[in-house]
Amino acid sequence: MSKPLMGKVALVTGGSRGLGAATVRLLAEQGADVAFTYVSSEKQAQAVIDEVHGKGAKAVAFKSDQADTSRAPALIDDVVAHFGGLDILVNNAAISVAGTVDDPDADTAALDRMHATNYLGVIAVIRAASRVLRAGGRIITVSSGLGSRVGAPGLADYAATKSGIERYTMGVARDLGPRNITANVVEAGLMEGGMQPPDPETLKALLSSLSLQRMGHPDEIAAAIAFLASPAASYVTGAVLDAHGGYNA
User: Fold this and answer.
1) Can you give the pLDDT at residue 151?
2) What is d(CA 224, CA 233) in angstroms, rounded to the nearest whole number?
3) Is residue 28 within 8 Å of residue 40, measured between CB atoms?
4) Most C-beta atoms within 10 A of its C-beta, which of 71, 167, 172, 176?
5) Alpha carbon distance, N-terminus to C-terminus of the chain
């Protein structure tokens, strides 16, 4: 198998399950040494490490809650101390909380935690990583089709976090371009084994709005992330790559 990422060091936030785990596995298969974060699923994190090690690649996991933005510099320091540098950052960690803006029983604490995790936490990690990323580095931010089109009620806050990190990543592309560091977005869609799916009626409506009218597999979205991390995407920056089954078509 071709190993276009040989000699590179990657960090994937939220890498113990779902899309994050698929991305860890694929980047490792392509030759990268991969660090990833998890919040509570230590057993799942170890399973991903064991799988990567079993294929002769390197992986390490760090427990880090992205909602605590003060942890970002220490996380980056840990990765650099372990692997000696950083070339690829994949901002994947996120949570989903639904609820209409006029719901009197809305869990505002949970919504605030989502904003901290999905938006402020991503910014904190990018800021910390940008200071150590080597020339030719890659930043890939995982967003959602909801970042550009809200297709159902109850998703305003989640969509806002995704739209926000998309625009922030565009600015990062401008700021870090002189260092030959690219910054791009992958808009992911509904995935098997991903976040808690919406209620059945909402899920049915969302699937019917897709050109492909099916849920994606984490490996399909991980392939888009790996492309943007690869030498083949050296002249791609400030872009949004849709990997959501045609949600915006």
Assistant:
1) 75
2) 11
3) no
4) 172
5) 34
For the entire predicted model, the pTM comes to 0.93
Respond yes or no: is residue 38 known to be catalytic: no
**Would the pLDDT of 1 be above 70?**
no
**Domains of the chain with bracketed CATH:** 9-242 (3.40.50.720)
* Angle, alpha carbons 166-192-150 (nearest 5°): 40
Q: What secondary structure, in 3-state letters, does 45-64 show?
A: HHHHHHHHHHCCCCEEEEEC
* 220, 189 contact by CB (below 8 A): no
Ranges of H-type helices in the chain: 18-29, 42-54, 72-83, 108-115, 121-130, 156-176, 200-208, 218-229
Structure tokens at 28: 């490792």
Of 158, 168, 235, 247, which is the active-site residue? 158
Which of these ranges, 52-66, 85-99, 134-148, 185-199, has the smallest mean pLDDT? 185-199
